[in-house]
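Reply to dn_fold:

You asked what the input looked like. This is it:
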Amino acid sequence: MIQEVNKVENEEPNKAAVSKNKAKNRAGNQAALALLIETYPSTFSRTNIRPLKIGIQDDLIADEKVAKNKIKRALASYVRAPNYFRAMKLDADRIDLKGEASGKVTESEAEYAKTQLKEFHQRRRDNQRRVEKEKKEQEDQQRISSKLEMLLSKKG
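and this is what came back:
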């Protein structure tokens, strides 16, 4: 029992550090994305998300308006978002830096996006179940501890 408590106590700081790093990375990615949205409003949007041209990263780098590392961060964040996957419908127009049509979404790309979206929703459900289970276990542990304290105080 004591080993289990020590194990849980040792894991807590690691979870906090990982969570802090994720939040920091997410903030950096969102800042980079905001820069792309500001620089290329006809291409990037938070509300009107459309499939991007294949090779748009090379176009962005060649345009030299945004740093290469920021482009990579922003694009990674943009194309992995659920709304981007929803936009990846069969034969949907892909857009270039000017917001003009530059190719179509193929069947395999549309299927891939559909699969990614399903996996995203499954991870979200799994995570929600895990959080609920952990909460219940914590409540059960607190209830047991409370009962033990009451028993000890009655005896003492």
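The CA atoms of residues 29 and 119 lie 22 Å apart.
Hope that clears it up.
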